[in-house]
Amino acid sequence: QLRLAESGGGLAQPGGSLTLSCSATGIGLRYYAIGWFRQAPGKEREGVSSIRNDGGHTMYADSLKGRFTIWRDNIADTAYLRIDSLKSEDTAVYYCAATSSGDTLNPALYSIWGHGTQVTVSS
Question: Mind listing the pLDDT tens digit for each residue in 63-73?
Answer without folding.
Answer: 887 899 999 99
